[in-house]
Amino acid sequence: MQARYWHGLKKSTNPIGFGCWQIAGNHSIDGTPHGWGTVNENEAVNLLLDAINSGIDFFDTAQSYNNGKSEELLGTVIKQTKKEIVVCTKIALTEDEIKNKKLANDFFQRVEASLKRLNLNRIDILLIHNPPDDLEWKKFDYGKLNELQTQGKIGTFGVSSKSLNGAIKVVEANFGTVVEWVFNVFERRPMQELFPLIEKNKFNFIARSPLSRGLINPKYINQQVKFNSDDFRSTLQQDWIDWTISSLKKIHHNGIAVDDLIKQSITYCIQHKTVTSAIIGIKTQKQLEDVLKINNSINDNAFLEEKFLNDIEKCFPKWL
Ligand SMILES: NC(=O)c1ccc[n+]([C@@H]2O[C@H](COP(=O)([O-])OP(=O)(O)OC[C@H]3O[C@@H](n4cnc5c(N)ncnc54)[C@H](OP(=O)(O)O)[C@@H]3O)[C@@H](O)[C@H]2O)c1
Fold this sequence. Notes:
The protein is an alpha/beta fold. Helices cover 36% and strands 17% of the residues.
């Protein structure tokens, strides 16, 4: 599939990217699980290496994924490979930064810490992680981000948003060049207002949760959804899980080839040219193999059949 161009970065990558939250391992924030279960670090490194060697060249991580562990594992692989990849990481604002609408002096040190863990001299994309939705980006002093760009420590910047409305505000304010939010067959609302804005303002869009946090999986047609207590998904809203699974079952009843569900869902995300990268949270070698098979079988003309698209529209009223 033709590579996607990153505005403001002057680089292109495969539209299927790798989300590195899943490989971060067990951790919790204020007593609530924030990871995706136990991870063997050697296996995670091998998974990342295999992905890179098979042509995956965009990786999304964050400082908060197990206190930098996800960045560190990616950094181990970056040290071992000669392949060129594009890396996006995220830093959360402190309460003072939110209140003052200004990055604190120690922001530079926080960026240096990521650079060190990632074994990089430059972070291609630095995103502000999950800021409050009502932050007024037009009034936010991002001089330090410009300074980091001038110093060559970051390529470009933007925001990974908590909500669709938050993402819209970031693009409206032209804060950087990258916005990250959810996009998948169930969550299609970005197509209404966000995508046209992104195209107008020449932004890049990172589509997260392309598999709706792993719930887009044919096994859930017959199997009950149950997550271990160390999996952050055990804290997801039950009515959202129920809605997602009932939509999955509707597809099944409408005769859509469920076996092909993962392929169709990934194709759905990346066939939208507004999506610069759809980052799949890959946790196992089998999942990587399946994603690579899908990657190799999709070409630029691999748009989903009209019938599938119509059925999706019928089956999935928008989640509000
Ligand atoms: N606010 C933010 O900035 C934010 C928030 C969320 C995510 N993200 C980023 O987005 C990335 C991905 O989004 P997400 O975390 O919501 O998850 P996702 O990609 O929608 O789903 C990940 C889950 O999908 C399943 N999966 C992966 N490959 C598969 C395959 N080939 N076949 C079947 N199932 C497969 C696995 O589920 P099982 O574990 O059940 O096997 C995996 O844990 C994260 O890694 C992270 O980088 C950012």
